Amino acid sequence: MADIIQLLPDALANQIAAGEVIQRPASAVKELLENSIDAGATMVQLIVRDAGKTLLQVVDNGCGMSETDARMSFERHATSKIKKIDDLFAIRTMGFRGEALASIAAVAQVELKTKQCGDTLGTYIRIEGSEVKQQEPCQCPDGTSLSIKNLFYNVPARRNFLKSNPVELKHIIEEFQRVAMAHPSVGFSLHHNEHELFHLKAGNVKQRIVGMFGKGYDGKLVPVEEQVDFIKIYGFIGKPDSAKKTRGDQYFFINNRYVRNNYLNHAVFMNYEDLIPREHFPFFCLYIDIDPTRIDINVHPTKQEIKFDDERSVYGFVRVSVRHALGKYSVTPSLDFNQEQGFNILQAFGDDSQTKPREWPREDDPQQFKTMPSAGNSASFKETAANNGTARETSLQKNNRKNWEDLYELPAIKQTAQGHVTIESDFERHEQVEGGTERLFQGPADRTPTQLHNRYIISPIRSGFILIDQQAAHERIQYEHIIRHMAKPQGSQQLLFPTTIQCAPADAALLREVLPEINGLGFDIQEFGNHDFVIHGMPADLKGGNEQHIVESLLEDFKNNLAVLKLDKRESLARSLARQTSIKAGQSLTVKEMETLIDELFACEQPYIAPGGRQTISTFDFRELDGRFAAR
Predict the structure, then answer these.
(1) What is d(CA 268, CA 282) in angstroms, rounded to the nearest whole number?
(2) Quick check: is 86 in a domain?
(3) CB under 8 Å to 352, separation ≥6 — which residues?
């Protein structure tokens, strides 16, 4: 039999490696920014077009490369940072595997310009699909400029798997933020489609946080700083009132390298257990300096996972440091008025760590929701409640009747001249009496719904009663109303006094991307410059007076939907707006409003489940109720 084993061609081997190292534009951004940091740059520029699909360019003022090094940098496993096996366990630089540029060049069109300080000429190299097309001397400033054009141009299947521009831009911004936060002494800027999203001057950690997330963070930060023999921690945590529903503003840096570690995250979250609502996450940006020999960072291709030789001690140190900072700055209540300023890790880690913690969701195990299909529409709740005597649309009448019949198997349903749907007969029960005759029990003629604790609605039916979650039910109603009207532009109610909102640079970039879709819902929001936006109008059926909160919450929900549920813009915005405009648990409703809500719910195409997956209706029949009162 002929020999069949052979070495892969270099181009094919590089493409396979690229699948592991370069998964999306943000992966290339991370590698290029880290190379600039390792080159000693004091200013790094990132230029992006079409969320990195057309262009990614990083320009720095670092040490640059010689002609030989420039060419060698595109070879696989070529690195200046590893010379012997022991170097793997004493790494303090960023990139070290020697695969990034080779992998990028295998799946993109790459142009490199680089010059060392003192050299007269620099080096220009152009590579396409691992093949060097051009190499020659060139005029360029000191440092390095590397452009990546048409990422995955020669791997169409990989390019087709890229997400929408808002999603890919979100990932790019996240990687940019992580590198910029890890190195506050270096200046950074980010441009996307000719818009400057970030311009961060070199400074300290607090200045970098404020520059990154906005001036609103200036008064929300609590400093953390502790040190023992083998480890040091410093940075900032957020006050409890700054916690958000979305995860993402949590940063751990080990020896100036961003890492993901759910165990350390839990050490921080435990201190906020009784300070913030459930499903909220506190802000923190914490830096840990530790002996490189006590950690292993070569456990994952992205180098964002890490192992400690004594993880339990590090957990205790982080937890107690955060608790000490919260107590020291009077953020947490304390009954120990003689609290010692120093602390003992072993003592603090003893009894407290054995208490059962609140279950915080893991970053890699987000809560799963059932994605509902696009559905029809129902009229707005308030409008229908106010105009209860007007006739309904025929499609709504059909949906209402069908859903009632399917769920309760009602014998007959009548429609009044005004368009109301009523049940012809209430529940019936038969009971054997003396003489073998049957006595018919009919339900109460009054089917008026009742509100329970301003949260649930109880409505009698023929077989028992139904319990409706008023918030989940109204979210379903609003969602189908929004989905139907997103197909055509909606009118906007102009505000007498326009409202200006100031966004963090990352939020401004995201809002700019989805602004056409948001305005299509009936908003009138215009960009004002410098990450500011002006709200000129709101959808006509929204209650005024809280415009800024609605828009900020809409954007926050949208970010969460992108990160966790992977929804498209249309579906995500519909869910977010439905949640923001629905009635809430704790809100008192009149009888007419409850009746209208029930009618509108059963007019929906999917009345039993809210858009987020919550159940809207629970049914209790007489068999179940009788069983609860049966003799024991």
Answers:
(1) 9
(2) yes
(3) 319
The rounded average pLDDT for each run of 10 residues, N- to C-terminus, in the chain (632 residues) is 72 63 88 91 95 94 91 76 55 57 89 93 92 93 94 87 85 93 95 90 94 86 91 93 82 90 89 85 93 72 70 90 87 48 41 44 42 37 47 60 56 42 40 42 62 92 88 92 76 85 81 83 85 86 73 79 66 83 88 91 90 89 85 74
Tell whether 215 and 326 lie within a shared domain. Answer: yes
CB count, 10 Å around CB of 394? 9
What SS3 class is residue 290?
strand
| Token pair 């109301």: residue | 420
Report the 10 Å Cβ neighbour count for 379. Answer: 20
**H or E, element range at 319:** helix 311-328
Torsion angle of C-alpha atoms 392, 395, 397, 399, degrees rounded to 10 = -140
Q: Which amino acid is at 223?
A: P
Return the CA Rg of the chain: 31
Do residues 326 and 389 both lie within one domain?
Answer: no
Other Cβ atoms less than 10 A from the Cβ of 108: the count is 24
- Owning domain of residue 612: 366-632
Residue 138 sits in a domain whose CATH number is 3.30.565.10
Q: Give the Cα separation of 376 and 592 in Å (integer).
A: 24
**2: in domain:** no
Task: Say if residue 375 is in the same domain as residue 437.
Answer: yes
The answer to the question of residue 361 being in a domain is no
Distance CA 241, CA 248 (A): 16
Using DSSP bridges, classify how beta strands 524-529 and 492-502 pair: parallel, antiparallel or unpaired: unpaired
